[in-house]
């Protein structure tokens, strides 16, 4: 598809669990592994927002680091604009990193407090040698600051991070990502540490930039309430696997996987009449993840014998895939 910009296929990343010094030297063969990302596949089109949602420890941030090539995958492939970037090295990899940038969760630790905003935002330009004169770099920084609505940009560019609010710092981090004109931005919980009112402003800004610059986003979050505002499609992750994926309204309004339903159950509803209503979280508490069959089966209220076998993605609706053998009538 000509509109496709990123294609992730069967991506895996396992981490060796080292419980003792003996494990560090691999002196025995019964090594244990955490399957942080296990056979994950998805596609993103130009100008599209894919939300990757799940609880802490589900593998979302590890998946982001794999896509950025910050860590190496154990297997699988990542195609960017038709080119397999999992095999790129040296100059080819460096060139790829100008086309995909990241905005991290914490605006207080993701930017250097010793540098002025001008130096922070211009750092990617210097690293990738995109502009050789200082004047050209400064012009690009001012343009990026104006794009994220930090004005007057010339005044903001001379400030240190401690002189800015949390929302302004996150805008600086977004400007640093935008300054190299990327085609994809990986946003890892970009609003979770901001005030509620500021969250809405940042999300609105990200949507405006998507439309203006035709940027694609991978929006990582555990908050389903913000995901529906910004996302086009959503992938629900649990224990390193995508258990349900599809258009965001279809998935959130008609969740088919029991884990997706449990996530939605946990979202607070802004309805004063429901403040005293007891929430029903459809989970077996205290159950642990398993590598036998469906990883959610020990926590699932609706699990059957077939769930202990290897689940497959079944198409329940158009473009709506769910990793579950249960039919909706059994889940309701």
Short note summarizing the structure:
With 332 residues, the chain is an alpha/beta fold.
How do the strands of the widest beta sheet line up side by side?
A: 6-7-8-3-9-10-12-11
Largest sheet: 8 strands, mixed
**Structural class category:** alpha/beta
- Named at the architecture level, the CATH assignment is 3-Layer(aba) Sandwich
Could you state the order of secondary-structure elements as H and E?
EHEEHEEHEHHHHEHEHEEHHEEH
How many domains make up the 3D coordinates? 1
- What is the end-to-end distance? 37 Å
Indicate the CATH class.
Alpha Beta
CATH names the topology as Rossmann fold
Number of helices, where a helix is a run of at least 4 consecutive DSSP H or I residues: 12
Q: Which parts are unreliable, with pLDDT below 50 for 5 consecutive residues or more?
A: 327-332
The name of the CATH superfamily reads P-loop containing nucleotide triphosphate hydrolases
Tally of extended strands? 12
Percentage of residues assigned to helices: 25-40%
How big a fraction of the residues is strand? 15-25%
Radius of gyration: 21 Å
Whole-number average pLDDT? Answer: 86
Taken from the alpha-carbon principal axes, the silhouette is globular
Keywords:
31% helix, 12 helices, globular, Rossmann fold, alpha/beta, 12 strands, 332 residues, 4-stranded antiparallel beta sheet
Indicate the topology.
Blueprint: E1 4-17, H1 21-24, E2 32-45, E3 49-53, H2 60-67, E4 75-80, E5 83-84, H3 90-96, E6 100-103, H4 117-127, H5 134-147, H6 153-156, H7 166-178, E7 184-188, H8 196-213, E8 216-221, H9 224-230, E9 233-238, E10 241-247, H10 248-253, H11 258-265, E11 313-317, E12 320-323, H12 328-331
């Amino acid at each position: 598809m000509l509109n496709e910009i990123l294609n992730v296929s069967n991506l895996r990343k396992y981490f060796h669990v080292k419980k003792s010094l003996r494990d560090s030297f691999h002196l025995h063969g019964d090594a244990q592994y955490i399957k942080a990302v296990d056979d994950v596949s998805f596609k993103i089109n130009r100008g599209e927002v894919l939300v990757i949602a799940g609880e802490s420890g589900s593998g979302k941030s590890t998946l982001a680091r794999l896509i950025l090539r910050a860590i190496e995958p154990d297997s699988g492939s990542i195609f960017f604009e038709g080119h397999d970037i999992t095999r790129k090295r040296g100059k080819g990899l460096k060139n790829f990193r100008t086309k995909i940038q990241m905005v991290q969760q914490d605006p207080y630790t993701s930017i250097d407090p010793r540098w002025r905003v001008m130096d922070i935002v211009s750092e990617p330009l210097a690293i990738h040698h995109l502009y050789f004169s200082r004047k050209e770099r400064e012009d690009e920084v001012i343009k990026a600051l104006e794009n994220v609505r930090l004005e007057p940009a010339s005044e903001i560019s001379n400030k240190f991070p401690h002189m800015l609010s949390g929302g302004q710092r996150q805008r600086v981090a977004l400007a640093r990502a935008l300054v190299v004109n990327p085609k994809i931005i990986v946003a890892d919980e970009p609003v979770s540490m901001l005030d509620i009112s500021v969250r809405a402003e940042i999300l609105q800004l990200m949507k405006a930039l998507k439309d203006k610059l035709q940027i694609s986003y991978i929006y990582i979050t555990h908050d389903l309430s913000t995901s529906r505002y910004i996302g086009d499609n959503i992938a629900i992750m649990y224990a390193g696997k995508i258990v349900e994926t599809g258009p965001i309204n279809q998935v959130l309004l008609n969740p088919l996987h029991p884990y997706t339903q449990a996530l939605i159950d946990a979202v607070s509803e802004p309805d004063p009449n429901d403040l005293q209503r007891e929430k029903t979280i459809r989970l077996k508490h205290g159950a642990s993840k398993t590598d036998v069959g469906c990883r959610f089966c020990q926590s699932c209220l609706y699990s059957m014998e077939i769930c202990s076998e290897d689940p497959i993605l079944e198409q329940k609706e158009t473009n709506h895939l769910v990793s579950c053998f249960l039919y909706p009538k059994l889940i309701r």
